[in-house]
């Protein structure tokens, strides 16, 4: 793939869109050959890979991808929970983050929803999102000046019984483990309270709350959240179906009031395991997505943000049998959401730390897969 995108402002598509997909999951050997055509077709200048692994697991593949991409994939580190409860665990993971950022060109930290819903401590108790035993990590991210992407809770319907009356029945029946409608799980409101406490405690650390902060159901709450916490950002990934159900004027108002605080991201997953090729477009049902659906998946995001279409199909059919109303953002806000916000928050600091060439060189010896020039 031709490398034209050397810095801010050079990646506009034919439609005049400059794009950074600020939320993706890219994994497996030799995966660049499947990522590159998507970036090419959509005019995506940079893509943020939130499945960058950690120094003890998955980093080698993620580095190969970043190198193959010529520095257009920016990896984020995940937490390896093994050993949690050991006295120096958090400081060790914080040191891993520093290593990933300073030595291996990582862009920051991504925390999966398992925090709060799945990861347990040595006594078997769920670890709360604002657990003090994790504080050294958030502190370190702030010191390094890198953002923390954090996924807390899920669509509120996942706390309702999995019956045909549940509006996410199709998705939940394809993925029974996504249901939290059981007393063993904290309620989503508790999880959001823990998360909001965390971002308040670490005001010097930047947090990107993915999936509209898992509160696309409540625009007023999002409004208050952004007003109260200047260190908080949102991404739209996999929640156009939810946010698109509100009065479009109200949603548009939120974007226009906080044009610097909302990031375009799709949650696309492109991967390869020993057994199969993986492609997930925002969410998945029983049938895997196919590559010929990718164009429409992105196009529905553009349609939602750019047009005033009513009752349009949303990007993720499995996430609910309804249509959405598009919000037609002003051009200046659109460019911020599509590009500028992620550039300022993730790409510019990353370039400043590494330089584009240095970032690629820091990734270690080339395998000869693709020449980054
Ligand atoms: Zn994701």
Keywords:
two-stranded antiparallel sheet, ten-stranded mixed β-sheet, binds zinc ion, disordered C terminus, TIM Barrel, 373 residues, single chain, alpha/beta, globular
Could you describe the 3D structure shown?
The longest helix has 24 residues, at about 330-355. About 40% of the residues lie in helices and about 15% in strands. About 45% of the residues are buried. It is an alpha/beta fold and about 375 residues long. The protein has helices at about 30-40, 60-70, 90-100, 115, 135-145, 170-175, 190-200, 210-215, 220-230, 240-245, 250-255, 295-305, 330-355, 355-360, and strands at about 20-25, 45-50, 75-80, 110, 150, 205-210, 230-235, 260-265, 270, 275-280, 310-315, 325. It binds zinc ion. The site of zinc ion has 4 residues, from strand 1.
